[in-house]
């Protein structure tokens, strides 16, 4: 199965030339390190940056240059810095081609829950609700199961929702899956060394399998 870096590497293959891409907090931030060199992509950070680069090397961090998760980042040549109002204006005007988010749960209908666990401290919803309401292409980077081994790909989300019927694709440590328009997770690829049976056992929602499922190439 994949580690977090492996999930980010696989998602980076979904990024196309000319895209403007928003990276959410958590695993999605790692995607910045794996954008192919032969394509031109602009990464947007919702706190006010276009042209985000990979993470800095140790000793080269600038504490004034951070992403939405408060991690230090780099800026690429030609990058632009602006306030949050302009950043969310871009998001709400659908100027972002692809949004990559983390999630605590995703339902077989494409609902996403990623901002709150009832009873636990939360700073706020952040920009996730704007992103899922405005984005037309959302990929989720997440663990397939929680720490108790319970599936996070469900018939229906049990946690407070961030968005409804918005997720298009999911990449986990076990698999790549499409969320189908009529509902269900269509299994596209298996992580190296992972069997279809393991994915079935880890998926509580409706899993759709059509023929042989190839092993993903990272």
Automatic annotation (TrEMBL):
Pfam family name, one: CoA_trans
Swiss-Prot/TrEMBL keywords: Transferase
UniProt keyword Transferase present: yes
Domain of life: Bacteria
Keyword Transferase: yes
Recorded GO MF terms: CoA-transferase activity
InterPro entries: 3-oxoacid_CoA-transf_B, CoA_trans_fam_I, CoA_transf_AS, NagB/RpiA_transferase-like
PROSITE patterns assigned: COA_TRANSF_2
NCBIfam families, alphabetized: pcaJ_scoB_fam
Family the entry assigns: Belongs to the 3-oxoacid CoA-transferase subunit B family.
Protein name from the UniProt record: CoA transferase subunit B
Source organism of the structure: Mucilaginibacter achroorhodeus
């Amino acid at each position: 199965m994949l580690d977090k870096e492996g999930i980010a590497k696989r998602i980076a293959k979904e990024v196309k030339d000319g895209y403007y891409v928003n990276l959410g907090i958590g695993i999605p931030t790692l995607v910045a390190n794996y954008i192919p060199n032969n394509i031109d992509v602009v990464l947007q950070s919702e706190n006010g940056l276009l042209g985000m680069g990979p993470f800095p090397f140790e000793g080269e961090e600038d504490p004034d240059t951070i992403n939405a998760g408060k991690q230090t980042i780099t800026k690429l040549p030609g990058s632009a810095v602006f306030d949050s109002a302009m950043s969310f204006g871009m998001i709400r005007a659908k100027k972002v081609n692809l949004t990559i988010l983390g999630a605590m749960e995703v339902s077989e209908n494409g609902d996403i829950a990623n901002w709150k666990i009832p009873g636990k401290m939360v700073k706020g919803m952040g920009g996730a609700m704007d992103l899922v309401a405005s984005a037309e292409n959302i990929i989720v980077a997440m663990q397939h199961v929680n720490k108790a081994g319970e599936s996070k790909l469900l018939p229906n989300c049990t946690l407070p929702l961030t968005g409804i019927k918005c997720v298009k694709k999911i990449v986990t440590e076990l698999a790549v899956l499409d969320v189908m328009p009529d509902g269900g997770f269509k299994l596209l690829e298996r992580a190296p060394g992972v069997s279809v049976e393991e994915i079935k056992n880890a998926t509580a929602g409706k899993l759709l399998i059509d023929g042989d499922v190839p092993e993903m190439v990272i």
